[in-house]
Each structure stands twice: as C-alpha cells, then as structure tokens.
Amino acid sequence: MDGILLINKPINLTSHDVINKLRRKLKIKRIGHAGTLDPFASGVLVVGVGQGTKCLQFLEILDKEYLGVIKLGIKTNTGDLTGEVIETKEVNELDENQINDVLTSFVGEQEQIPPMFSALKVEGKKLYELARKGVEIERKPRSIYIHSLSLKGYNSDEKTLTFTVKCSKGTYVRTLGEDIASKLNTVGHLISLTRTKVGDFKLVDCYDLEDYLDDKFISIKDALKHLKHYQVKNDIEEKMVFNGRKIKLKIKEDLVLILNQKEEPMAVYQRINENIFASLRGFN
C-alpha cells in the first residue's frame, strides 16, 4: 500500500489518534500526515501511506481553507472551546458591514504570534507542554498569508460569527479568531473549525475512518500534480536520476517531480543554481 489517503478527521481525536487507528486498520506502520488538526477540529487530513509518506513535505506547503465559528465575548486560554475561560467582555452591537471591514483588514501578508497551546517546538519543548504547566514564553512572530477571509453569517443573539478563510501553511486559525474578536473591540474563541480544503483536496472527497480504504489511495504522481512534472528522455537520464545524480533542466519552477520513461515517479528534484537540480526526495 503506497499513496495518499484523504481522511475526514472527526472531532475529539488528535491527528495522531487517526494515524494510530489507520495503522491498525491497514496493518501497516509507515503512515504519517501533512498538517495537524486540533482535537476539536474536523475535516481534511492528508495521510501518506508507505512511499506516500515521502510526499508529505510537499503537501504540507499547500494553502488550506477552513470554515470556523467564533464565540464573541468569551476568551479561553486555548483559543477554543476546550480551554478554560480567562476573560469575558461585552460585545457591542455589530452589523455585517462592520464585520466585513474587519475581516478584509486581515487579507494579505502579516505576522502572527503562535499560541502557547500549539505543537510548535521552542528549544526542543512543545509549547503546549509548557502551557499546561502554566509557563508562558516569548514566541517569535511568523509570516503568514491570508488569501481570503469572508463572513458567512452573524448571530447577534448567540454572539457567534461564522467565517471562511483561505490561508498559507503555518496559519493558526485559533489565533486568527482571537485577533478578529480583538478588532471588533471584544474577545472571543473558536467553538467550531472544519478544514474544507488542502490545495485541491476537498472535504467532499474525504473518507471516514470506518470506510473501506484499501482502494481509495491517490497515487504519488496524482498527489503531486501541483508540482512541475518532467519525464526523462532516455536511459542515461533515467539512470542519473535513479542514482541521485544532479541533472540539468531548463524549467522555471524550483521543484520538479521526475518521472521515468514509464511515467512513474522517481524523485522530487530542487533547483540549486541556474539550471542545475539536485535530488531532494527519491521514491522506490
């Protein structure tokens, strides 16, 4: 079994829980995922199996889309509904124009400080491990990009704001939710989060853990369709790639999936200077 599976992660499971269940179900140990989803979140989890695990680093870089719901007026220590309430604040009367103006202000490149309750490592320690001990440390802001951020609805009685966002790798939507609330002159936390898309992988194309999955694999070639594909032209070129040798290519992209003469994936190559590419990851 080699390739990519699209799993609809249910709530109340960690991404690692999903991997462990798949290992038992498929009877294979070599399984991993691209892009962690918090336990309270659901949606698209891209899973690599066998040789498919070698694809994951190239799938993690894809943009992601989410559907989220913010509960305004209440702040938790985790930024979501699983945390403890640490602050409450009045929510002023809001109309959709005000909310849309705030959402639009987030579109584009910006700096975001990762939350303490995250798996990000600082000096070898995961932040959430420190947070659970009541320790808070300084975190360096990271550059992220918000492609779009749209209002889907606002319930003035429940003080809940539903939104969709398309964002770059590394974006913490919990932090985004808190920042949206702050710009609305209140506090807030996420009460629902669904990842609806990773690159071109959509939630409607995902399978549940209970489904029969043996014939649901996406090939490595198809999974990496967002990369430039280059098919070797002869035996000499194919042997160079097989042996991990550098090759010369006249292409504009910096990453390229090399296919053999049978159009099977051999390796991902990366530009190291003008026209010279070196092997970054090989496939057996």
Tally the helices: what do you get?
7
Biggest β-sheet description: 9 strands, mixed
Number of domain units: 3
Number of DSSP strand runs:
18
Q: According to CATH, what is the class of the largest domain? A: Alpha Beta
Provide the residue-averaged pLDDT: 94
Strand fraction: 35-45%
Q: CATH architecture of the largest domain, please?
A: 2-Layer Sandwich
How far is it from the N-terminal to the C-terminal residue, by CA?
13 Å
Poorly predicted sequence stretches spanning 5 or more consecutive residues: none
List the helices and strands and how they pair.
Elements: E1 3-9, H1 15-26, E2 31-34, E3 42-49, H2 56-59, E4 64-72, E5 74-76, E6 85-88, H3 96-104, E7 108-112, E8 121-122, E9 125-126, H4 127-132, E10 142-155, E11 160-167, H5 173-183, E12 188-198, E13 201-202, H6 220-223, E14 228-231, H7 235-242, E15 247-248, E16 255-259, E17 265-271, E18 276-282
Parallel strand pairs: 3-12, 14-16
Antiparallel strand pairs: 1-3, 2-3, 4-11, 4-12, 5-6, 7-10, 8-9, 10-11, 12-13, 15-18, 16-17, 17-18
